[in-house]
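Students often ask why inverse folding is considered easier than folding. One informal answer: many sequences map to the same fold, so there is more than one right answer. In these notes we will look at a single instance of the problem. The structure comes first.
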């Protein structure tokens, strides 16, 4: 189940119809939904800046472990912003 605060962004150029979910959780429990979305083969941009610092660190550690366990990928986009993607998504940096 995708949380109500997730904003799906369809990617027209993607032939699989893959969505990118943008999530701004306020609490750790809501951040856990990012791993659920990753397990459902969705790409997630997770912005933890609205969380208290201790919960944001805990959430970052949790989603990092979840991405690893699911053979997913993780990229840090900012201090508290992360990109989580399933293994089949091609991530490249320029």
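Output (designed amino acids):
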């Amino acid at each position: 189940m995708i949380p109500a605060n997730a904003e799906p962004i369809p990617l027209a150029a993607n032939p699989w119809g893959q969505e990118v979910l943008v999530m701004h959780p306020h609490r750790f429990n809501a951040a856990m939904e990012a791993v659920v979305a990753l397990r459902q083969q969705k790409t997630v941009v997770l912005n933890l800046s609205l969380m208290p610092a201790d919960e944001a660190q805990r959430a970052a550690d949790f989603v990092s472990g979840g991405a690893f366990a699911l053979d997913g990928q993780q990229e840090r986009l900012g201090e508290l912003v992360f990109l989580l993607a399933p293994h089949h998504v091609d991530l490249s940096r320029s």
